[in-house]
Automatic annotation (TrEMBL):
It comes from Chengkuizengella marina. Gene3D superfamilies: von Willebrand factor, type A domain (3.40.50.410). Residues 197-371 form the VWFA domain. This is VWA domain-containing protein. Transmembrane segments: none annotated. SMART domains: VWA. PROSITE patterns: PROKAR_LIPOPROTEIN (PS51257), VWFA (PS50234). Keywords: Signal.
Length: 533
């Protein structure tokens, strides 16, 4: 019996060893990444009185609360999301930037931040919900939800920007006003835009073979090339374990040759994003054109596991190229192994825009409907400074833009990086404010400072702050979008709100295809929330 028992023990041990050796290899993590852990963020002590928004005993300055240094892009707050069922979504890399607090005007009358038109956070969240899961709170950047839906503001004539300020009673904060600052850039017809010198840097590593990511990249680039003009040029760099040139810059007059090169893309190998970007920038530099759009366009899932994999190594030279008018736009693809942090920060520091492409329809929107704005920048280093009158405004809170905070004293420091705005783009910023004595007019000023590309000079324009008693239809819809994002990111300021309230407001005010699709998205989120709880 002892021999039989010993034999059975050995057999069981052998099976356990075999089982361990067959465990799947974990996906490589980027330098500095950590597994997601729920943490409570507390900015300042608060006191809740009735149904009113929380009041602060000590107000924290937004300038010191959330300043972003690029070298700190990967910290312990970068996370990997692993849903309980492990189906469809494996390793997703995000970074939380906290939530802006209310600021007392007695402590600080100025609110300063850089603006951009990124929309990647909204489409990432949409992809989660369409797959039957709510996005992690760290994936939600409220301003990118709001800016996904353009305002109806009329484009300016004979100037770069129009500024509109409006607002009214907040639908989600009793006793508070919602104020909107909307900025619309000059529109440029595609036929009148500058020639484009583009280099596509395409991730063809093994991870891009998942979910037909590379297939969607190809279709997206087909759309883009089809919209280009004969005086545009396209070069193509691909990277897996190493980077290589598959198409030297070629005139779009030879469109067939460009499309043929795209069609032959196949995925294999590891992911050396650094080498791909270096080669892309070198190619644009070699063929640099004055009075043209000189841009690198990165298509990737953002994961890097060969060469420099941390933010500092990959992005060390990008700012230098941006100062020399070579910009970078990033387009993200894929779920299951996607790095939102890197893709968003690459675009921020490369003076370009970031979008996440989750479908052919989204690719069509970016590369056909918004092509000129995607390619041609009209303003660089754009910053907003809002100054509230402390005699009329008691406190305020900027909704979103946490990772775009700028120190008040750096508003007119033109060496400090701001955001970039393309032709025809709109940018929206929402504030919740508490006014004194029901004041509505002349609440302060908004100043927009930017480097005007056409004038090749720094320009500053301003407008007064005045609101109304009631929100218009469009602003009511944007309020629903903002509150939806606030709920998804588990903001303290939305803890009394519900998705059903968001749905009711959105349904009452949605018009057009995109807004009605948002209504459906909220319904899906409600259904997910019901079975998750």
């Amino acid at each position: 019996m002892k021999k039989i028992g010993f034999i059975l023990f050995c057999f069981a041990l052998f099976l356990s060893i075999i089982g361990c050796s067959n465990q799947p290899e974990e996906s490589p993590m980027l330098e500095g990444d950590s597994i997601y852990e729920e943490t409570e963020q507390s900015h300042i002590d608060i006191e809740v009185q009735g149904q009113e928004k929380p009041k602060f005993e000590e107000s924290a300055s937004m300038d010191s609360a959330l300043s972003l240094e690029f070298s700190e892009s990967y910290t312990d707050e970068s996370i990997v999301i692993t849903p309980p069922n492990r189906e469809g979504i494996e390793n997703m890399y995000f970074k939380g930037y906290g939530t802006n607090p209310f600021i007392s005007t007695e402590d600080d009358t100025l609110s300063t931040f850089a603006i951009d038109v990124d929309t990647g956070s909204y489409t990432v969240a949409r992809n989660y919900i369409e797959r039957g899961a709510l996005p992690p709170s760290e994936a939600v950047r409220v301003e990118e939800f709001i800016n996904y839906f353009k305002t109806d503001l009329e484009a300016p004539k004979n100037k770069s920007f129009t500024i509109q300020v409006d607002g009214g009673e907040s639908p989600f904060g009793e006793g508070y006003k919602l104020m909107r600052i909307a900025i619309k850039g000059e529109e440029i017809e595609n036929d009148n835009r500058k020639p484009a010198n583009l280099v596509f840097v395409i991730d063809v590593s093994g991870s891009m073979n998942q979910e037909n990511r590379l297939g969607l990249v190809k279709k997206s680039l087909y759309l883009l090339v089809d919209q280009l003009k004969d005086n545009d040029r396209v070069g193509i760099i691909v990277y897996g374990s190493t980077a290589r040139t598959i198409l030297a810059p070629t005139s779009v007059e030879d469109k067939h040759r460009i499309l043929e090169a795209i069609d032959q893309l196949e995925s294999s190998g590891s992911t050396n994003a650094e080498e791909g970007l270096v080669m892309g920038y070198e190619m644009v530099s070699e063929y640099f054109q004055k009075n043209a759009v000189n841009r690198v366009i990165l298509c990737s899932d953002g994961v890097a596991n060969v060469g420099e994999t941390g933010a500092e190594g990959i992005l060390g030279e990008i700012k230098r190229y941006a100062r020399n008018d070579i910009t970078l736009s990033t387009f993200g693809f894929g779920m299951g192994n996607y790095n939102d942090v890197l893709m968003e920060q690459l675009a921020n520091h490369g003076d370009g825009n970031y979008a996440y492409i989750d479908s052919f329809s989204e690719a069509r929107r970016i590369f056909t409907e918004e092509l000129t704005g995607t390619l041609q920048t009209i303003a660089k280093d754009a910053k907003i400074q809002v100054e509230f009158d402390p005699n009329k405004v008691d406190r305020y809170r900027l909704i979103g833009y946490e990772n775009r905070d700028v120190r008040d004293e750096d508003f007119r420091n033109d060496t400090v990086d701001g955001g970039e705005i393309g032709a025809g783009h709109t940018v929206t910023a929402l504030y919740e404010i508490k006014v004194k004595d029901n004041e509505l007019d002349d609440l302060g000023y908004i100043r927009l400072r930017f480097n005007d590309v056409k004038m090749e000079d720094v320009v500053e324009i301003s407008n007064s702050l005045s609101i109304q008693n009631e929100l218009n239809r469009e602003l009511k819809f944007q309020a629903a979008v903002a509150e939806f994002a606030e709920i998804l990111r588990q903001s303290y300021w939305a803890k009394e709100s519900t998705l059903m309230e968001v749905l009711e407001l959105a349904e009452q005010n949605a018009v057009g295809e995109k807004q009605l699709q948002f209504v459906s998205l909220v319904k899906d989120a409600i259904a997910i929330q019901s079975y998750e709880h």
